[in-house]
């Protein structure tokens, strides 16, 4: 089980095995980087904040409570670092479409492919328009495939509050999408 593997690696790092920390970095580096980028939309800053996150993880590893998933703990630190960065610079970032990874469509016809790309654009634009908390919830839910419970731990919120934010934002998207497109779409 991944959860047990992480606990073992943490114990090895605490016992002085630096190689185990390198394994943790390799395992979570891209997850943390994508999560931070989803919040601040700045590639270079995301890389710096990701590095700061791992430095903090290393320095505070003794504080990790192994009753919880290590991945949730590290993403909570990454979230706090990203929010600190936003507060420090008080800037709003917009996604650069060219930097986003294009999703490939498995649709058969050009019309279906166009509709898929158009829907993907609406979803991306909608997520970028969300406030910080809702955006974090969507990124964790879809990019990192976290459960509502895991998201509640990472964001230090009640699970019911996370669900309320998620479903309210989802309903808002569906209203906007139906109004502008007039269909059910691919949904969230």
From TrEMBL:
Residues 24-91 form the RNA polymerase sigma-70 region domain. Residues 122-171 form the RNA polymerase sigma factor 70 region 4 type domain. Keywords: Sigma factor, Transcription, Transcription regulation. One of its GO terms (biological process) is DNA-templated transcription initiation. One of its GO terms (molecular function) is sigma factor activity. InterPro entries: RNA_pol_sigma-70-like, RNA_pol_sigma-70_dom, RNA_pol_sigma70_r2, RNA_pol_sigma70_r4_t2, RNA_pol_sigma_r2, RNA_pol_sigma_r3/r4-like, WH-like_DNA-bd_sf. It comes from the Bacteria. Pfam families: Sigma70_r2 (PF04542), Sigma70_r4_2 (PF08281). NCBIfam families: sigma70-ECF. Belongs to the sigma-70 factor family. ECF subfamily. PANTHER family: RNA POLYMERASE ECF-TYPE SIGMA FACTO, RNA POLYMERASE SIGMA FACTOR. This is RNA polymerase sigma-70 factor, ECF subfamily. It comes from Clostridium cavendishii DSM 21758.
